[in-house]
Amino acid sequence: MCGIVGCIGIDYPVEYLIEGLKELEYRGYDSAGIAVMDEEDLKVIKSVGKLKNLEEKIKKIKFKNPYMGIGHTRWATHGKPTELNAHPHKGQFGALVHNGIIENYQEIKKKLTKEGIEFISQTDTEVILRLFEYYYDGDALKAFKRTLDEIEGAYAILLITKSDPDKIFFAKNGSPLIIAKNDGKFYFASSDAPLIGYANSAHYLEDGEWGFVENKLHLFKEKEIIPSFKPLPTNKESAKKDGFRFYMEKEIYEQFDVLRENTLGRNTKEGIKFDELNKSFFEGIDNIIISACGTSYHAGLVGKYLIERNAKIRVNVEVASELRYRKPLLNKDTLFIVISQSGETADTLETLKMAKRKGLKTLALCNVDNSSIVREADKTILLRAGIEKGVASTKAFATQVMTLWMLANYLGGINEYDAINEAIEAVKVDVSKHEKIKRLSKRYLHGHGFFFIGRDIFYPLALEGALKLKEISYIHAEGYPAGEMKHGPIALADPGLFVVALLSKNILYEKTKSNIEELVARDATTLTISSEYIEMTDDFIKISGTNHPLVEFFEMMVITQLLALEVAIRMGNDVDMPRNLAKSVTVE
Ligand code: AGP
Q: 83: domain CATH number?
């Protein structure tokens, strides 16, 4: 998730911009930049990599009298992390920073190219600035409004221009943007942290709000409106977690925004599109191997069901640490897919290198551009989950499964546009349900372990739910195929055995229901997650009565994530940094 800062009317704008960008580093980025109005000169300085690279460049600049500026940290989604693609983008007479994705950027780019306008980056963002300058005819505000009326998608924008050098233009739709003020000085940021210590009150822009700041704030929706300034938080650490208790909790709540970003430009009314791929890449492919570890492996297991069902291509899913030493039979008609949030997991990377040595086509589903795995793979689909701070993966898992669903439909020529959007809605956290899970969790602290059970795609979800719980609560938990309980594990059934049952209404409902009843009959303590209430279960968490199993999947996923979170919090554990674990396992 990119970071935005801006300021006007202060004595040292460059210092604020750099300090502000440092407060946004926690959001993760691979390039950064600032644009400063320095008397009549518009200076744009950008760099790839860490902020210190940008600071080194800035030290070499002789500023005369800078009085306003904008800044940005970029997490690559459209276009590689290069200086050209870094923000702020510089035009003929303006500079702009943007967070979000412009969904109709290709058609605007095509229109402007026909008008002879040249583009120098691969990004969707540059289109906004080029469109503004295309419409500019002496009235910057009018040109800005015309631009906003034409672009579609999610955006938080700051724009400065020599054509109107005393204003910062801003707009917000779908991506966060805040305006803070203090004694006639105005500050902008995409989250609270950069504002704390500079200002004490802020207006949190709503979707569709836009305007400019000169000596004062001019705020519009349909017409000019009065801003509502609220006190800013005073604690930066809490602000970085957006007020949540842990980054993991914040990242569970972020899943709605993250899945929108993951599917933007990909899940379209005409079907699935991947800018990164072309159908010829899959010519001659007879089967697929997916190699991954941990949570990413669980996502791969879901992918097996979806790709075999929707694309009719055989899939084998492998634990990377086993695959790399097994001397597997690898043929060139196999597409080798690796899934990795970090892009640095040693076992997964080694299997990728092994496949490449054997001449297989390779595809990475990864969250970190320019990571080792991305650099090694022939093709990459970026997950666009933004930085994931919690060691226990949540939003990355959600984007992995969503990307595999889109890939299965891309390969199978299937369009489930509405179902995918319904699934995105399904990950919005229902706060009252979260409250119920928080209360319920006190009953699940002192058993002799958990079984998470499910069938079909809910079996990998059971594995993932069990992993989430054990890695942050340190209570033993196993994921198991519901139909397998009677082949041994049911011997464990007693009141101290906690069973979390994922009961889909749409897939093998009766079979799974009877598995639950077998456990209830043997007095196991059961928590059933379903749209269909069943008698005798000890606890029950209701989900919507959707008719699509993947919508059920995403609803249940959020519940299992919140259950793990609340049990771990009751255990007093460090949810974000569980003992013995690292965010990226770069060793064998
Ligand atoms: C997930 O909650 C764990 N942190 C871990 O299993 C992780 O999924 C695994 O180490 C793979 O990491 P990767 O996705 O970065 O390759």
A: 3.60.20.10
